Fold this protein.
Amino acid sequence: MLGLGRLRRVAGEISSDIRSARDRDPAARGVGSIEILTSWAGVQALLAHRVAHALWDAKVPLAPRVISYGSRAVTGVEIHPAAQIGADFFIDHGSGVVIGETAEIGDRVTLYQGVTLGGTGFAPGKRHPTLEDSVTVGSGAKLLGPLTIGRNAKVGANTVVIEDVPAETTVVGNPGHPVRVEGKPVEGPDTDWIHLPDPIAEAIKELSARISMLESELAKARGEDDSSGSVTELRPKKGPSSAGG
């Protein structure tokens, strides 16, 4: 059953979760702990999970699933009681987040709304993702199967990940592709999801430029005027960074 040590651990985890919300959500800065507990759905869902998981570990019947179900109805966040979640975890906005039974989440991980840590297949055993420390997952991303997201990796909004992601890597697209911004990895927990590069657009741009060059060379070989016209360059969206907003 629940012991004093387990209760102390849960209380410490809840305290760190509130601190994480204040550190990573600009709207929570200067807001009291009670207000965060009563107004932040992601924090409420995590609070319920901490209790449900402790009961699950203590092999208390029924109660962990009831708590999980009630939390989903209130917050829109579904976390299986068996899922393992580390310290300083933060779910921003929360609505639509799903975390499966065998998911494992390290410390200082951030998820945005609509993220799914889902399973594949019907076989028992490990079938949900593992997120190592300091991972950030953008809104709407789907991570499917027993894959591993390495330390400090970042998953762009609406990305579908079906393979392991190395540490210090940013992935975007469907399926997810590694990308770099200006030759450097994307840094910081509040990633600017708007200005991430699009690997498919970059491939199309390269193909378009190649076709234009070949048409020009063919026209010269035939002694014709080069009337292929200019190629419109596909550029990433410009503007102020949305990081931290």
Residues 1-93 form one domain. The mean pLDDT is 84.
